[in-house]
Amino acid sequence: MTDQIIKIFVDFDGTIMKNDVGDHLFMEFGDLDVINEIADRWIAGEISSATFWLELFDTLPEVDKRDMDTFLDTMEIEDGFREFLQLCDDNNNIEMIVLSDGLDYYIDHIFNKNNLGHLKVFTNKLHFTENNRMKPSFPHMDEECKICANCKRNHILDNSRDDDITIYIGDGLSDTCPAQYVDYIFAKRALLKFCEKNRISYYPFNNFFDINARIEKLLSKSRLKKRHQAELKRKAVYTLG
What we know:
Elements (H helix, E strand, L loop, with lengths): L5 E5 L1 H5 L4 H9 L2 H12 L5 H11 L5 H8 L8 H9 L4 E10 H10 L7 E8 L5 E4 L14 H7 L6 E6 L13 E4 L1 H9 L5 E2 L3 H13 L7 H13 L1
Parallel strand pairs: 1-2, 1-5, 2-3, 5-6, 6-7
Antiparallel strand pairs: 3-4
Helix pairs in contact: 3-4, 6-10
């Protein structure tokens, strides 16, 4: 079994969760036509992720926190995620970090409700004003990157060393950038299509049971190989400073 240090970075919306909580939040409380128009502009690269969030929240009416919490309680964690956490806990050489371009309010609520508040998470922030309006902020934004308001790539580089084995698990557009900087990728939906289009090796998955089985196989190897293209991209960032 490998004794290499393994850093696993996991997306939240649509990956840890069965659904994209952020999307469903706006579907529940907002105007779907307006939301789709803003989302289309973001997908087309016309606006940044931070602008996307700011415009979306500007469309929402006042939302009572109790109504928000009641809605969040309907969201389900993906099958096999608890078993995945146990797999990580059982291996001292594995560290798992959640990276989300979503908002801390709903992530914290869901994790605390499921006794997962101890997990290490990097995300955007959500603030409630006195009149029950919501305002996002972006403490981890990279001004040069429009894909994520919370720069997942930077978190990967800051939380791993060159000799660590890095793994990314994700499903969406905000996962396409960070996945390019890791050695092993688990992908579905938009991330899977991106990897196929750009000829990046990946493992497809439906839920965490698929991931657990593959990671156990990786752990059984005496030595895991680094992905050369990921090493080159990491070095390019370090060179630019």
